[in-house]
Amino acid sequence: MQEKFIEESETRVDVNQMAVFPGAACGSWLSVRLELIGGLITFFAALFAVLSRDTVDPALVGLSISSSLQVTIALTVLMRTASDVETNIVAVERIKEYVELKQEAPWEDPSHPAPGDWPTVGEVTFQDYQLRYREGLDLVLKGVSFSIRGGEKVGIVGRTGAGKSSLTLALFRIIEPAGGSILIDDVDISQLGLHALRSRIT
Ligand SMILES: Nc1ncnc2c1ncn2[C@@H]1O[C@H](COP(=O)(O)OP(=O)(O)OP(=O)(O)O)[C@@H](O)[C@H]1O
Ligand SMILES: [Mg+2]
């Protein structure tokens, strides 16, 4: 038990380090570059102060050098903040994407409750059923009509891409119809709340 825990823990630390280590290495790399730039600025401020030591006021020299020292810190903070914002804004983007996602039909629909013991017989009828995966795509099921009697076992045959799996998705309304309807025991499933439909036929 203990060994398993240690092993699991080590694996997870390894996985975590795969992301953390490059991040830390990049951070250090950035720091070196930024400090180098800051150092150069300070160096030139000092150099010019020395070169013009006879003409410039000593107070001004002090101010310019101490200001240039602060540039390093400011640069680092600026870059860190900018890269943090860039990293974290991904979360906002993701939420925005989910907010804009088209919602499924209502989970419960009180105005169309499923009849008490529906489905009793299990008779499934497709009427001129059409289905496409997304607006603008071709129809995948181009108006299929068939009827399966209650208790009957059927096999669906067709080459790959014929639409066998799509039929199942249609039955659970994972994908909504582009036309036509599916009746189960004479109830049009497109009228039901999704929860009523999916819980009764699973
Ligand atoms: N997520 C999807 N987005 C767009 N088109 C899709 C998607 N899934 C399937 N299709 C298209 O729908 C058609 C029917 O696919 P489906 O998966 O129902 O076939 P299938 O008969 O189950 O095939 P297979 O025997 O390979 O399982 C295919 O032409 C496929 O290109
Ligand atoms: Mg399939």
Bound molecules: adenosine-5'-triphosphate, magnesium ion
Alpha carbon gyration radius: 34 Å
Overall average residue pLDDT:
91
Compute the number of structural domains.
2
Could you give the distance between the termini? 38 Å
Question: How would you name the oligomeric state of the polypeptide chains in this document?
Answer: single chain
Q: Low-confidence spans: pLDDT under 50, at least 5 residues?
A: none
Question: What's the helix and strand layout?
Answer:
Layout: H1 2-51, H2 58-100, E1 124-131, E2 141-148, H3 164-171, E3 179-184, E4 187-188, H4 194-200
Antiparallel strand pairs: 1-2, 1-3, 3-4
Short description:
By secondary structure, this protein is an alpha+beta fold. It has helices at 2-51, 58-100, 164-171, 194-200; strands spanning 124-131, 141-148, 179-184, 187-188.
Textual characterization of the structure:
The mean pLDDT is 91. Helix 1 packs antiparallel against helix 2. The protein is elongated. With 202 residues, the protein is an alpha+beta fold. 53% of the residues lie in helices and 12% in strands. The chain is built from four helices and four strands, in the order H-H-E-E-H-E-E-H. A four-stranded antiparallel beta sheet has the order 2-1-3-4, with helices on one face. The chain has two domains: 2-100; 124-200, no CATH class. The structure holds adenosine-5'-triphosphate and magnesium ion. Magnesium ion is lined by residues 164-165. This is (California timema) hypothetical protein. InterPro entries: ABC1_TM_sf, ABC_transporter-like_ATP-bd, ABC_transporter_C-like, P-loop_NTPase. Its main location: membrane. It is found in: Endomembrane system. Keywords: ATP-binding, Membrane, Nucleotide-binding, Repeat, Transmembrane, Transmembrane helix.
